[in-house]
Amino acid sequence: MKSIDPNDFKIVDKISLKKIPTLLDIKADDDEKQEKLEKVQKKLSELQDVMYSHNKYAVLICLQGMDTSGKDSLIREVFKEFNARGVVVHSFKTPNSTELEHDYLWRHYIALPEKGKFAIFNRTHYENVLVTRVHPEYILGENLPGINSVKDITPKFWKNRIEQINNFEKHISENGTIVMKFFLHLSKEEQRERLLRRLEEGKHNWKFSPGDLKEREHWDEYQEYYEEAINKTSTDYAPWYIVPADDKEMARYIVAKIIWEEMQKHTDIKEPELDEEIKSNIEKYKKELGA
Question: 49, 230 in Cβ contact below 8 A?
Fold first, then answer.
C-alpha cells in the first residue's frame, strides 16, 4: 500500500478541480484500508487525550463536499475511538430564525471547539459563499443593509465575504484553534450511482430527497464556486485539502492520516508535568492507599 503524504492533497497553488482526480489507487484492498484506518483512529484518540490535558489548543475540522460525498460516514469512522467528551460535531443546515437575526458567521463562532477539544463542522461557514452563490435569493433572508433584491448582490459582495472568512479563520488560528479544511472531491457519475442506491436499497430510502436532484442540476456552478473559494482561502493558517472521494474507505483513511500528520507538527502538545510536591510524595501516597 502506497504511503499517504499530506502535501499531495494540500492546496498551496491555484488549482482546477477538473484536473484533480476523484479516485486514488494506492494498491490496497478494503481490508488493508480498514486496518490502516484503525491504527490511525487509535493514535488520534490518544493524541486527543493528551491535547485535552494540555488544554491550550483546539482543533476545527471542516468538511465540505457535494451531496453523497460521504461526510457523515467519514465523521463516524474517523472519530469513532474518541472519548465523547473530546469531540463535538455540528451539522449546519439552513439558518433558523434566531441565526438569521445575527451575522452569518455568528452560528459558527458559537460552535467553535473549547481548548483541548475537536469540533467537526459538517458543512461549514463556506456554505455562505457556495449555496448562496448558486441561490443568491437566500441572501435576502439575512435582511442586510443595502441588499433589497438579488440585483444588489454584486461581485464585490462575494469578494468581501471571502475576505471576512479569511479574517475569521486567521483570528481563531492566532488564538489557538488549529484549522484543517477538507473538500471531498466526488465525481458526478459516482454521485449518480450513490443517489440510485438510496432509491434502490430500502434501508437508505430515508436519505433521499427530491431536492438532491434539483441541486445536482447546478453541479457545474457548485464546482466553479468551490474552486474559487478553495483558491482564495487556502492559507498557511487554514489550509484546504482536496481528497478524492469516489472511494469512501480511501477518503476516510486519507483524512485521518492528514489530521494525524499535521498534528505532529505541534510538538509542544504534551501532558502537563506533575506538581513537584506531588511528584516527590508519590511513594507516600501509594503507601497511604495501600494501608
Answer: no
User: For residue 241, how many other CB atoms are within 10 A of its CB?
Assistant: 24
Phi, psi of 61 (to 5 degrees): -105, 120
pLDDT in tens, 59-79: 999 999 999 999 999 999 999
Give the global pTM. Answer: 0.93
Q: What is the pLDDT of residues 135-178, one digit of tens each?
A: 999 999 999 999 999 999 999 999 999 999 999 999 999 999 99
Q: By 3-state DSSP, what share of the chain in percent is helix, strand and coil, each rounded to 5?
A: 55, 10, 35
Kindly report the three-state secondary structure assignment for every residue of 139-155. HHHHCCCCCCCHHHCCH
Neighbours of 263 (CB within 10 A): 19
Give the C-alpha distances (Å, rounded to integers) separating 144 from 43, 93, 134, 151, 166. Answer: 46, 20, 18, 13, 20
